Write the structure tokens for this entry.
Amino acid sequence: MLALIYFIILAVVAVGAALCVFLSKHPLYGGLSLVLTMLSLAGIYGLLGSPFIGVVQIMVYAGAIMMLLVFVISVLNAAKDNKTPMFDGVSLFVIIGVLALAGLVGFALVLSPMGFDASTLRGSVEMTSSNLFNTAQDGPGYFVLFEVLGLLLLSSMGAAVLMAKKRLGSEIVEDNSDNKEEK
Amino acid sequence: MDIIESKTWVEWVITIAKFGFCFVPVLYILLLIPMERRGAGFMQDRQGPNRSYIKVPFFGKVRLFGYVQNMCDGTKLFFKEMFAPKGSKKFLYYVAPAIPFAIVFLSPCVIPWFGPMVFEWGDKVVRIAGPILDSEVGILLLFGFSSLSAYGAVLAGLSSRSKYSYLGSLRTTAMTISYEVCQGLSMMGLLVLAGSFSLTDIVSWQEHHVWGIVAQPVAFFCFLIATIAETGRAPFDVAEGEPELVAGYHTEYGAMQFGLFYMGEYSHICISSLLVATLFLGGYSVPFVTTETIQTHMGGSLAILCWVLAFFALAFLHMIYRYSRKLRASAQANKMEILQEYKLYKGVAWIATLVLIGAGVASWLYYNPEYSMVNGVVVNSLGAALGTALIHLLVLLVKSVFFCWVWIWVRWTLPRFRYDHIMHLGWKIILNIAILNLVVTAVVAKLMGGN
């Protein structure tokens, strides 16, 4: 009963904030509403008996990634204070796509109703770690995927650094030569 | 209503009373502001602000060692006008200072303030956990909250439409993210040793093995540096560096809005020092004594606690008497006034000393509660359990106040880093040391046959 009340509050906040992302005129407010969505999603994860995933959601998404996103929005947009139009040609396809996806997900959820019980642990620290890093021969083998994902992220980071370096390279050389002349 | 009936009423009272710990950071502000200002004076060989006073009938001008100055500042901030600069985003501008201050009330939830209380009530054995929220992801939750509190500074800078604020908030974003990584990785070694994210488990591991500072000395220093950087104080205060950015992200704020940022910073110090004390200095555990010993010798433990407090009162008296002697010999114009003021402190301290010594003797002689062992856990009466909790709480507070002093000490000793130096220190030095420490710890723990 109590869990249901919490769920309704969190769900309303999550959906409302997600709508705000869609409707807000300034991208900064959009980003902040996305933070709110992330936080209430973390709460819902907690209610579903997986506090670890909820906390990781807060730390990684709300804390780090959205912080970087707000950073980027502010660097690109805050000075101009521009207002993007709410709808344009592309958004027609996006809306149809989103509606179709929502219908599909709703259908799937209705077909397989999840038992809503906070007392059953679905993603505790121990459960997550023992499932994810089960290195037994006949285990699920998630740890291989985990390592592959790590490699993928590392390579994408390396690529980003390389691209940034190429663009900034000439300027850095100039800066160095200036410094040497001063010395 | 089966939720209410699932616990006895004593359990409910203690569980609800534990929410009072949410206000500990706010109380720490009252302690920290005078400590910082007089501490700065001490570091720089001057007095610090100590001239404001309250007039008390017999004793004259009572200054309470500068605490009155604190109240004056607070009153001033409360009654100043709140305003928003032209062109600012009004909503974000007013919400921003509240974010770090609101997070402050959430963070103490996961810190274990005392060991698990186990006592007999009626014919049931009641067990009450130390933290308000005894979660298995305790420390991660704390890190999540601390990363959220940076939004306050970021939004303040973005919404106040000033270039200085804006630069300050950009720097805050970069610094928070980079030092959070260092902070998280440097404490991972300890988590590997303790084998849990729960702060209660970490403290009980330290109680039964060694303190974190002994097991993980490198991690301790990395964590301390990263945590000081995380609170954004000198030498890491580039986000509000006065020589470059006026006051950084809170340049445009005045009155209590500025006050909220200020209090948020001090409560962040409180939370961080509590965290360092919990992770690396054994939290609530008393040095060289296990909780079981305290519980089996309750009267003696309480007596020792009282006598330690009495010793502090005597040390305070010694200080006051030394000051009075110096003052009498000096040619200061207002020395009679100050001596009159000191009479109040002397009276209070003498009464406190006598009461504490008396209470110690009484508890030594007359308070020997019965206890029984159930599954290796000492079970005793409610009073003895509360006494243990009190001792634990005081020990934790003493440790954390020491770290608060470390914060002030560092701030007034070291010069400010340049921005690129901070990034260099974070990403190229501390992060690498922390990762190396984690790898070495993991290998050693595996070889020693731990988890």
In short: Residues 53 and 63 of chain B are 4 Å apart (CA to CA). The interface with chain A takes residues 3, 89, 92, 135-137, 140-141, 143-145, 147-148, 150-151, 154-155, 158, 166, 169-170, 173-174, 176-177, 180, 196-197 of chain B (CB under 8 Å).
